[in-house]
Amino acid sequence: MADVKHKVERAAFGAAIDGILKYVNKDEEDREKAFLKLVDLSEKFMGNTFSKESYDAARRMIREPDSKWMQYVNRILNEVDPHVIKMSALDYGFEAAFCGKKEINEMRVKHQCNIPWLILMDPTSACNLHCTGCWAAEYGHLLNLSFEDMDRVITQGKELGIYVIPMPFLVDGKLYFEDVDMNKEQFYHFLENDADLSTSQPSPGDVMDLWDKLLKEYDEIVHIPMSSGLSASCSTAMGLARDYDGKVQVVDNQRISVTMQQSVMDTKHLVAAGKSAAQIKEILEKEALESSIYLMVDTLKYLKKGGRITPSAALLGSALNLKPILQIQGDKLDAYKKVRGVKAAKKNMLEAMKKDVEGRFSDYVTKGQLKLHVAYTTDEETARQWKEEVQSVFPDIAISRMDPLSFSVTCHTGPGVLAIAASHVLDGVE
Could you give the CA distance from residue 235 to residue 225 in angstroms, rounded to a whole number? Predict the structure, then answer.
């Protein structure tokens, strides 16, 4: 129903743009009237999405035809194809300003933080001209966004219908939410300065608030929490879902991090194929053991802090430069092997994954239904090199993603982690 309403409103907005474009292209001298009419229409259509002062400022700008902004607008109208203008107006005006701004305002209140209306991204700031006023003038190469980061931002922005409940964690007793009120740099600052970090699960209230909101727009919800063997958030969600009469299906397919992301992509495919939430739950849970993760821990410090190894074992392991390799198979996180040095750890992880690929995943490889993933913590350049190493060993298997581990995982592993993962993907999933 919401989708139909959206289409109708977009069509009405598009028709209004067509009328205004036809009017302003007749006579350049009459454009001021047309622009003022457009502002009046926007104010009526968008209501209090923007302040009255914003609309008044737009009117003042229009009444100054010699200003740089009106000269710019007139040039666009004179030189740019009308269809391009219309689609830009629909994307920036209707989709971003009208639809997007309302949701942004709601999220700003809910999460008590600023959410940008527009994100401007540079592939690079590697310019040596240093022109006055240019944002690239003061940026160094270390501030460049990687292709993976840009792709992740754009992809997540496009993946409508996927909602993420941020995992909470405590820093010196204060509650934070990942990517809501703490960024990566702040998190690692706390981590490296021995702050008291611990993880928690999302509050039942936050989970139910999101479900209630979504059920006003959708008939059913597929909720995919972290593996039940690694977090109590799964069993909590299952308990809450009992009060929703089957409209919320909580999936425990025993995945985490990059393999869990693949489950989300599988879910989108199943939704598009017309599967119900209950059917999707059944399919995904049958896939519970069809994934594998191996990760190298660079320091024993955080395993010691979490009580997973004794202080004496951590001291000895550090002296010997031991790099534990952990594995996640189903709902269990187990020690796989201890080796000396990063090079040996990489070699052993690749050998372990090769054994899985040639053994229990061999049929999936033949059918083109296996994907590899790379995960890391702090050093993105090292992660890229690791990705290249992985691809050289498995040239015929696609590496679908290279993503940082979540804060809730990194609390227990520390920085410097490298991981390789594999997951079966459903037939037809890209």
Answer: 9
- Please give the single-letter amino acid code of residue 358: E
CATH of the domain at 390: 3.30.1180.10
Length of the chain: 430
For 263-320, what is each residue's pLDDT tens digit?
888 888 888 888 999 999 999 998 888 888 898 887 656 554 554 444 444 444 444 4
List alpha helices for 287-379, DSSP H.
301-305, 311-319, 342-358, 362-367
User: Could you tell me whether strands 322-329 and 332-340 are parallel, antiparallel, or unpaired per DSSP bridges?
Assistant: antiparallel
| Distance between CA atoms of residues 152 and 155, nearest Å | 5
Q: Which two tokens stand for residue 180?
A: 């809501």
Do the beta carbons of residue 184 and residue 152 sit within 8 Å? no
Quick: pLDDT tens for 351-399: 999 999 999 999 999 998 899 999 888 778 888 899 999 999 999 898 8
Contact (Cβ atoms closer than 8 angstroms) between residue 375 and residue 147: no
- From the list 270, 298, 303, 299, the residue with the least C-alpha distance to 284 is 270
Alpha-carbon torsion, ordered 259, 260, 262, 263, to 10 deg: 130
Structural contact between residues 298 and 405, judged by C-beta atoms closer than 8 angstroms: no
Which amino acid, 173? G
CA-nearest of 283, 225, 233 to 256 is 225
Residue 32: inside a domain, yes or no?
yes
DSSP state of 182: B
396 domain-assigned: yes
Residues sharing a CB contact under 8 Å with residue 273, sequence separation 6 or more, in sequence order: 428
